[in-house]
Amino acid sequence: MSIIDTTKAILKQKQISQWRIIQKISQKNNIYLTKEGAIENITKGQRTDVNLTVYKKQGNSIGDSTVSLISDDPEYISKKIDEAVFTASLVKNPIFNLADEEKIIKKVKLFDKNLRLDEKQLLKITDALKRETAKIKNTKLVQAELLTNINNVKLITSKGINHNIQSTDIFFEATFIAYKGKHEQEHVVMKNFRRLKDIKPQQIAKKYASYAHDVLNSTRTKHFSGPVLLSNDAIQEFFNPELDVCPLITHASARLKYMGVARYQLNKPIIEKMTGDKITIINNPLIDYNIASQQFDEDGIPAKKTILIKDNIFKSHFANKRYADYLNIKPTGPLGVIEVKPGSKSIKQLYKSSKERPILEIVAFSSYSPEGLSGNFTVEIRLGYLYKGKQRIPIKGGMFTGNIFELIKHMHLSKEIAEFSGYKGPRVIRFEQAVVSGI
Amino acid sequence: MSEIKLSTKKDIKDLKIFFSNLIRKMNTNLPYSDILLIKKSALVITKDKKTISIDNTADFGLKIRVFDGEMFHERFTSKPDKETINSLAKELSALPTKKRIKIEKGKIINKNFYSSKKNDPSKLSLKIKVDTCIDVFKRLMKKSKRIINARIIYKEKIDERIFVSEKKKLYQKVTGCNFIILPIIITREGESRYHYHARFAQGFGATRFTNTQVNNLVKLMHKIIKAKKIKPGKYDCILHPVVTGLLAHESFGHGMEADTLYKGRALASKYLNKKIAPSYVTIADSPTHKNTNGSFFFDDEGCLADETVMLKCGKVNQPLTDLYSAIKMNIPKTANGRCESYDHKAYARMTATYFKPGKTPKSKMFAGVKNGIYIFGKGGGMEDPKGWGVQLHGMLGQEIKNGKLTNKLYYGVGITGYLPEILNNIKAASTNFEIPGTGFCGKGHKEWVNVAEGGCYLLIKNLELA
């Protein structure tokens, strides 16, 4: 009997009527390369995570509690269920209902059928990366990691939801060092993919080795006040920070609204007195093979496209079932790719500069971690360029600082778009009145 | 299937014997092998204005690792029954040896370690823990109408590990409690702001939050409402230990991780045994400070906990090593081989990182500043080991005038600059010493481990703030 069947049987026996089980099985195959392309480590294995949530209605409130199940021993599971029921009895939250069964109509592709648990397949990619790097003068590849997962997620609830989804994900990291005599500088690239074929060693080596060379030839950033452009990895991180949610999205959350700290109001502008492009943001979890795409959320609500902000007007919250019930709105399913509509200017127009009015472009941050509520941020520049007419000077260091809600008041977005992990939208964003603190 | 258990001392002893037998078999063919079993559980209570949640998470698994003379091979499972473990060991035993080298030397150590039982949270009922969170929440909200919401997070962790190699048979049970208080206010302009107040202790004492402390936090929140963004520029600054620890961790510590040094990714490799800071500046890392997040008795590669002095009296000293980089660089192994979990490899990682105390009393340090900024509060940062660039952000700044703190507060303060310049601008290190910082550290954006930060107060001239 599987752990899910055992758990279901015990729940039935204990007459627990509201529950959810999520099981995730991941088969992992990781390869780690060190300097000169030597293999440092190959790690393989399988992990299974099972989480059970039980819900307990008590008068005008509901309690819920989640426990992890790390053994399929029925006695252990029975004890954990009792623990969850007891814990749920101490939780008294406003009533919400579990999601009803809803058929998944729009399917999203998340699975690479060509990905195998075979290090030879991964070594082909790292070998190609080594070859491509070797072709670039004064450049070395000193480290790479390819971490692959083949996942199977099963979500079942007492309301009859029974979803099963297979997905794959690949984390890729590489460090390129550029050198000139004794001087060296590096650039680290970290990317997430769904498919192996989307990892292009030639393009990666070329682009990020050139970044390492630009860092090597860079000067320290000086104080700058004026137009700042974000492109490449920086624009992706701006809309989809690695460790946080972009504050522009955070304030669209139903949970924040319920907590009374959201700044957006329905059908009202998100920003007053805008002079540039008006922003449109869509939550789209249905873009095939994007790492942020998902088929359903933790409640089993199928993924759908939701317009959050249209032309600067807040149109809808994103909400799981609990907070949707609290706000009396429909749940939107999972948060996915942040899709931003293109703007009014061409890239050429956005890069316009002169000696008298220079512009500063940031292509990579060290780590962009904005404050979710206030929108304040301070982030170090890993690589950027100062443009003075035809002159392009690579810069490094210093802090790009400001408040997102202030910056977007005077912003232009490019007509040209690109798709990254977790972000699809303009290739370039230009803030007309921005500040960079130099060193 | 014969599931393995960790309930009694006999279970632990039996497991050590079982693992030792497997190690012996694997070592007949291979130069080195080890086994790491991890069992973790956490109780998390979160309370805010409208909701409360209580969850119990757990993780249990094992990894077996062999070294073939050139590289490591690892196999892991979340189903650590004896049959699965035997099968993984058998698979690894069949791997060919590429080079015969001796890795483990010294005596056999067979020991069990336990955290202090003082204020043991496992002896308290869940209701007491929930009521404690609700009580702190209520006292905080009652004190000020301007605080529109707050989150109180209680996290109780139990971490058990068994490590067995040819020479080591180790078990540890480490407990810890994190208590986080996060009040939220809205400025007159409609901007939401919060302050992150976090504390850690091995026992339930982490939750002790007196009325005076509540009052102080509320007063600070009222100042945060009016706080401005600082004008970017150079300032004379005094840094609180939570900030000096962050500086030690992000800007120096990451660059002293030997796996980074070995790959030629850290500028520190060119400065080993060279002076980069004044002689009163010493930076160390140690998992031995009991009431700090991430403390332990041995690391995930069986190295017993000890302090590693990375910067000694201004000179770049000893790197933090994982086993692979220690072998390759032929340098001592330190207690810094850590993995996020059994399905991750170990890297060279920090634990509690700090500036060691100096000779200047804190009061004298403040008295010497005519115009300056006092930097405090929990922030974040990012490493740049190759460039020694500094990025710390999200802290608070308070104006110092003629040696005294004024009411002028700055919100979201960042520190930037070039590390050797900043270190050389340290004019004094305080006699006061504490390690209050508690949080997580990633290698890049992954491989999360618990860490702590702290040390002494530092007076730094011409610090670039943004």
Task: Explain what you see.
The complex is a heterodimer of chains A (439) and B (466). With 439 residues, chain A is an alpha+beta fold. Helices cover 21% and strands 39% of the residues of chain A. In chain A, a hairpin with a 2-residue loop joins strand 11 and strand 12. The model of chain A has no long low-confidence stretch (mean pLDDT 96). In chain B, the strands form four sheets. In chain B, strands 1, 2, 3, 4, 5, 6, 7 and 8 form an eight-stranded mixed beta sheet that branches. Chain B has nine helices and 23 strands. Chains A and B meet through strand 1, strand 2, strand 3, helix 2 and strand 4 of A and strand 2, strand 3, helix 3, strand 7 and strand 17 of B.
Topology:
The complex is a heterodimer of chains A (439) and B (466).
Chain A: H1 3-13, E1 19-33, E2 39-58, E3 61-69, H2 74-90, E4 93-94, H3 119-134, E5 139-157, E6 162-180, E7 183-193, H4 201-216, E8 219-220, E9 224-230, H5 232-239, H6 247-250, H7 254-259, E10 281-284, E11 306-310, E12 313-314, H8 321-327, E13 337-340, H9 347-350, E14 359-365, E15 376-388, E16 391-396, E17 399-403, H10 404-407, E18 411-413, E19 417-420, E20 423-426, E21 429-437
Parallel strand pairs in A: 8-16, 9-14, 13-20
Antiparallel strand pairs in A: 1-2, 1-5, 2-3, 3-4, 5-6, 6-7, 9-21, 10-11, 10-13, 11-12, 14-15, 15-16, 15-17, 17-21, 18-21, 19-20
Helix pairs in contact in A: 1-2, 3-4
Chain B: H1 9-27, E1 32-47, E2 52-67, E3 72-77, H2 82-93, E4 109-114, H3 126-143, E5 147-164, E6 168-186, E7 192-194, E8 197-201, H4 211-226, E9 233-239, H5 241-253, H6 258-262, E10 283-285, E11 308-312, E12 315-316, H7 323-329, E13 337-338, E14 347-348, E15 352-355, H8 362-367, E16 371-376, E17 380-382, E18 389-401, E19 404-418, H9 419-424, E20 426-429, E21 434-443, E22 446-455, E23 458-465
Parallel strand pairs in B: 4-6, 9-16, 15-22
Antiparallel strand pairs in B: 1-2, 1-5, 2-3, 5-6, 6-7, 6-8, 9-23, 10-11, 10-15, 11-12, 13-14, 16-18, 17-18, 18-19, 19-23, 20-23, 21-22
